[in-house]
Amino acid sequence: MENKIPEKQIKELIEISREVIRDSALENGAIVATNTDQTYYPREAANYRWVWPRDASFICVAAEILQIPIQEPFFDWLYTRPKDFKKDKLLYANYSTNGQFGSMGRLLQIDQAGSVLWAIYEHFKNDLTKAQKYKDLIERLADGVAANWNKAFFKPHTVDLWEEPHRQTSTTIENNFTYSLAACARGLLLACEMIPNCLWKEAAAQMIEKLNDAYSPTDKYFYRNKGKISDKNIDASLLGLVWPFEIFEAKDERIINTISKVEEKIVVDGGVHRFEQDYFDGEGSAQEGGGAWPLLNFWMAIYWAKNGDREKALSYYNWVLERIEKFNGFIPEQIFDDFRVGVYPLVWSHAMFILASRELGFIK
Question: 92: helix, coil or strand?
Answer without folding.
Answer: strand
